[in-house]
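## tool: complex_structure
## caller: assistant
## args:
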Amino acid sequence: MVTSAISRGSGRETRDSVVIRFAGDSGDGMQVTGSQFTLETALAGSDFSTFPDFPAEIRAPTGTTFGVSAFQIHFGGGDVMTPGDAIDVLVAMNPAALTVEIEDLQVGGTIIVDTAAFTERNLSKAGYAKNPLEDDTLARYQVLKFDITKLTADAVKPHGLSSREAHLCRNMWALGLLLWMYGYERTASIEWLKKKFAKKPVIAEANVAALNAGHAFGETAEMTEHLVGYVVPKADVQPGRYRTVSGTEGLAWGLVAGKRAAGIEKLVFAGYPITPASALLHILANLRAYGVVTFQAEDEIAAAGAALGASYAGALGVTSSSGPGIALKTEMLGLAIATELPLIVIDSQRAGPSTGMPTKAEQSDLFQAVLGRNADAPLAVLAPVSTADCFDIAMEAVRIATKYMTPVMVLSDGYLAHAAEPWRIPREADLPQFPVTYRTDPEGFHPFLRDSETLARPWVKPGTPQLEHRIGGLERDYDSGHISYDADNHARMTKARADKIAGIANDIPLQTAALGNDKGKLAVVGWGSTFGAIHRAVQITRDEGRDVSHIHVRYLSPFPRNLGDLLKRFDRVLVPEMNNGQLVKLLRAEYLVPAESLPKVTGKPFRVTEIAQAIRSMV
Amino acid sequence: MTVTTITDTQLAPKDYASDQEVRWCPGCGDYAILKAVQKACADMGLVRERTVFVSGIGCAARFPYYMSTYGFHTVHGRAPAIATGIKLANPELDVWVMTGDGDGLSIGGNHMLHVLRRNVDLNIILFNNEIYGLTKGQYSPTSRRGTRSPSTPQGSIENPVSACAFALGAGARFVARSIDTLQPHLISVLKRAHAHTGASFVEILQNCVVFNDAVFENITGKEVAADAQILVEHGKPLAFGKNKDKALRLKPGKLELEVAPPGPDTLVHDETNRPLAQLLAALEPPFPTAMGVLYCNPTASYEHDVYAQKGAAPGKGDLDALLTSERTWEVTE
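## result:
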């Protein structure tokens, strides 16, 4: 493995993996700090998993507990699968961040605080009667107290910043210190700062100065007994070119790659702003050169309508939202199912019902995706298992939508959307190809003539001579496609729509166990972003000698055709999911297996220990 | 963008009819509109395969099934959104939105507002019969106060919306009005709408013979038509009446119209004048109802501007370059 040369101080202690959480006010730049730390981690060759956790308020009143924004990164030499259960190092830029985040800190863990932020006013906003830095409140932890505010101000002084501007550089000082602690480079962060503030070189220079000062502080300061440098080993990963990727980026690029693999000229993405789905619109809006047209519609319904209209016209129509917005699109999904047109719908799930907790992740739209429409209205549902899987799942959604002329719902979530992982970048030449064929031949044409294998109807671009036809939401005759209210015909069409979606099961991989045997005492079955936590829990409990396997379902409608048989080979089935028990009910309904639920609805991802404990109680 | 509509073989109106049996109630005004649209298509030589009729739900929304062009019968009120998607995917298509007063101004009012504001190059034809026909006769957003219906047994207490005034308020740059039975006039208005670049909005007063028969009789009745309608034409005086003995002028010192004998102060119709169009659109009895092109002031369409933007849709971007555009690192054996 080759990376840029990194000098790692001798005498450093080795840590297999570390969990750091950066926490501060939503205006303190914690997300940026975390992202830059992530990049340096990646460039140094460690594996990592991140978990950004920020408030719904854009700028909550400073110093308040509900305004705390945090970014957690778990990095190390092994296969890092989750953002980490417990924090090793908490960087708390103010008392509110300390009080909100400390519950996740391990006993004996390290706290780094900016003492200047522990004013009476901030302490009272955070609910501290007394300064916790001055009594034994934090006795169980290693507390590193620095006047980061003053140290930053001193560092940026030569650049003549206002005190407010100087204050905004505190996060870079903290970043510099943490990079020193783990022996990481600053090069990429400096590059990033210079690019970000290209039009304000003074601000760029000041931030770089703060970053360097934080780093130098670690290097040269009188070592307190707790300020120790560490070294984290490099990860052993598949050779190739890597970058960091968020779930949203993966989805956006996967859609573009899918469009190209299908040989479709245009991708029309129609969306309406909603947290946490808007980022997809933002990314795609910059991809005009890739045949992407984005449209910010007047509402969720119009977004779905415009996407469907685009598919009708022969483009790849894509719409995206979060739970409440998906609910609004439901009627249009029914039309897409009735008229059998391809449509991609990306749902970045969040905690609900109703507005719920917009920035907190949940997996509670599974029922909505699979079942949530009037009448018998089946469609395909896929769920990426990680941020790195988002690219592949988006391509797969395009393949299925165009091959089977059906809407495909992709269930991402607020966690996947924002979290970052290292991603082995594919080369376009190595990607699968699945070119679509538009019907142009008038001989024997009618709009609902089905392919005998896929049961898909032909895709015809308006503009094609002699194929003029009418489609719509009214039931249509199986043979001619004309409006039909015939009873037997409706039964036949209902079955045809169901069979078409069910048949996709023959065109997707068989379900395998991600870890463990394909039979035994306990199968832990998950879907979506819980992959890492379940996998690690199964790994740990298998190491303890327990007979447990991990099965992770990417295809939720239809299920892989062997899923039922596979589950029946286990004595017990446990289904951890971030909802009140949805997949578990689908599995029980579909296969009559006595699956048991492990729900979590706190708006936070599963901890490995929560799942491991549940496993231990069963086998 | 205006679509080239020249064909080698001249098609007749019947060539624009599909093979489907038309299923509106006998005597419905929709038959006359269908006939007028097919005649207008033939007169303009529209290319069938490049023409798409999109509709929502309601009696008017059955329209696409009866045309031999491409057609998409969609969801209640949402035809403007679907039509917008069609134009974004393929601006070359000639797209018509067929809607009604409930579809276009009630459940789909928001979409109508935005499609007009954006100026998507569509021909939007709104059949206004002031009633919900397909659901058996409830009052609609254009029903006059006092309209008795199954859902308003004591008469509607809501104020109606004026379709044309709404369209102008939404920023439409082509607004016209005609009547189902006013055949040569309707056909010429449809042709004007089609020739216009950007969103064209045409309100057609349409008689629902079953649930709201003769609701426009005070405007369209043979005896009263000459005095109850004013046929506006760009550059011509705003005169009406059997002998053109009445005319519109501004009330001195006020932004308000009044009826007076023709004279030097008679207003001349200027279809590029939005305030005048707004005054005309709002006229209601005892004033004459304004028919014809109330406003026409074209500018570039939405989809034209979309594709005029930097880097728009050559579609040949380098994917590998995109995926490696940020910091990357190489892992070797």
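## assistant note: Chain B touches chain A through 60 residues (CB under 8 Å). The first strand of chain B starts at residue 51 and ends at 55. Handing back to user.
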